[in-house]
Amino acid sequence: MTALTGTGGMVRLILRRDRFLLPIWILFLSVMPVNFVAATRELYPTAADQLGYARTTGTNPTFLALYGPIHNNEISGIVAQRSGFIPVVIGLICALTVIRHTRTEEEAGRRELLGATVLGRGATLAAALLVTLGASLTVAAILTAGMASQDLPLAGSLAFGLQLALAGCVFAAVAGVTAQLTESAGAARGMAISVLGASFVIRLAADIGGAGNALSWLSWLSPLGWGTRLGAYGDERWWVLVLPVLLVAALVAVAGTLSARRDVGAGILPTRPGPAEAAAGLRGPFSLAWRLHSRPLYAWLGGFAALGVVFGGVAGGVEDMIRDNPDLKEIFTRLGGTGGIVDAYFASVMGMLGLFAAGYAVSATLRMRSEETSLRAEPVLATTVGRLRWAFSHLVFALLGSVVALAVGGTAAGLTHGLNDGDVGGVLPRVLAAALVQFPAVWLIAAVAVAFVGLAPRLSAAGWGALALAAGLTMFGGMLQADQWLMDVSPFTHVPKLPGHDLTLAPLAWLGAAVLAAGAAGLAGLRRRDLATG
């Protein structure tokens, strides 16, 4: 029996388990950019319209940060740029998929049961990677055919599809490595997401200053930056594809080697045994939750600080960037008024910060479900700790941790711009308020995740779907000309655009009421339903 014996059977098992989820995200991510083509043609029917829009987005720091550079002034270039956040999404999905079918299975003890059959040591990892890499390449194939069917150049369509697929392949391989390093699926997910976040921040820092800025070389240090360097629908540089292919091969080799050198259920990184008796300060559910949540929270806070510094550092150049661009100036004037161009910029980027904070809140909320399915919640709840107290011990990190993350990001952005502008006292409170006002929307996403955990625990991963829906509407709803009722589904639509606009309390009050309703429903369900018992 070889290390890969049984890989085919494991592939069929993964395809069976993901028979609904896999086709959904493959079709969604491959068809959405194709829909952008028709929407963009309708919005910008003439070459002059397209040129004006491309000039605007090509110098808009918010667009550059979120989507990357634009490589031509036609429909194809606009669509490719507006799809620039999809590599982050597909990278996240692929990383979570690999960890779900590797480390999560080991943590739950199911990998050990399968290992008692005719199954090689590397079969589970190989099957998870084969399915995920295959799904990414399927996205590329469908996307290439779809874009080419819209009368866009075939070579550019192929480069565009490969740009998305290789992002998925890289972060699937990253997750293959992190799944070998730790005993915990949550820690493995945190490591993989941290790598993805760092890659995005590096790509953002390289692109936010526009073409030829002093930091543009940073994009060569990020797998997400390689995608923009490929130049889909521009002067495609096919040799760039060698970089992600080599990285994927190296990471897969490392993951396979690490998998062969560790015990099933163990990780490469040693787990230190604790003392026989816990200290007085570690004998309650909240102290246990602190031990579980503190390290991921520190990593997220570091990411928010880095994002804040980048956002604040670019703000000073916004006015210079739009001085010779009347279209862009009109957009910012409409958003923030004639005296609020920098305010409008901060209102936009703080909305992005809110989406990232919602990602942390969902991750911290779903830790409840992972503790339950790994059977670690049951012994805690067998003591005098009630279910609501146990749930609150986790939710306090989802709620307060996200607010702290927003405060860190807003403070870093305000301090950086304030120091550059010589007016820390005037800038910092305004930017910090713009960051903190996002928290009702962030909490509503977390409350929806609580509702799934309490009422439909098998669908608890749909908390990520709620975040994806909100992010999709926020980033793409305007371009797809979505109806206002659909845009209103995203809680971030209702957040006041600070600084530059008045703080209206009514929408925040409605968001707060929705948070209470969804959270109460979820906790009531958690209190009444049976726990997972393996």
Brief synopsis:
This protein is an all-alpha fold. The chain contains 25 helices and no strands.
Describe the structure.
- With 534 residues, the chain is mainly α.
- It has helices at residues 7-17, 21-43, 47-57, 61-67, 75-82, 86-101, 103-107, 110-115, 123-148, 154-181, 185-207, 223-230, 242-260, 285-315, 318-322, 326-336, 341-365, 367-373, 377-381, 387-421, 424-436, 439-455, 462-476, 484-487, 505-528.
- Helix 2 (21-43) crosses helix 5 (75-82) and helix 22 (439-455) runs parallel beside helix 25.
- The radius of gyration is 23 Å and the shape is globular.
- The model has no long low-confidence stretch (mean pLDDT 85).
- This is ABC-2 type transport system permease protein.
- The chain crosses the membrane at residues 20-39, 84-102, 123-148, 154-179, 191-218, 238-258, 297-318, 344-366, 395-419, 431-455, 462-482, 508-526.
Shape: globular
Radius of gyration: 23 Å
What are the secondary-structure elements, in order, as H or E? HHHHHHHHHHHHHHHHHHHHHHHHH
Query: How much is the average pLDDT?
Result: 85
**How much helicity do the residues have?**
over 70%
Strand content: under 5%
Class computed from helices, strands and strand pairing:
mainly alpha
- Kindly, what is the distance between the CA atoms of the first and last residues, rounded to a whole number of angstroms? 30 Å
Q: How many strands, which pairing sense, and closed or not: the largest β-sheet? A: none
How many distinct helices? 25
Number of strands: 0
Q: Give unreliable regions as ranges.
A: none
Keywords: Membrane, Transmembrane, Transmembrane helix
Protein name: ABC-2 type transport system permease protein
Organism: Actinomadura viridis
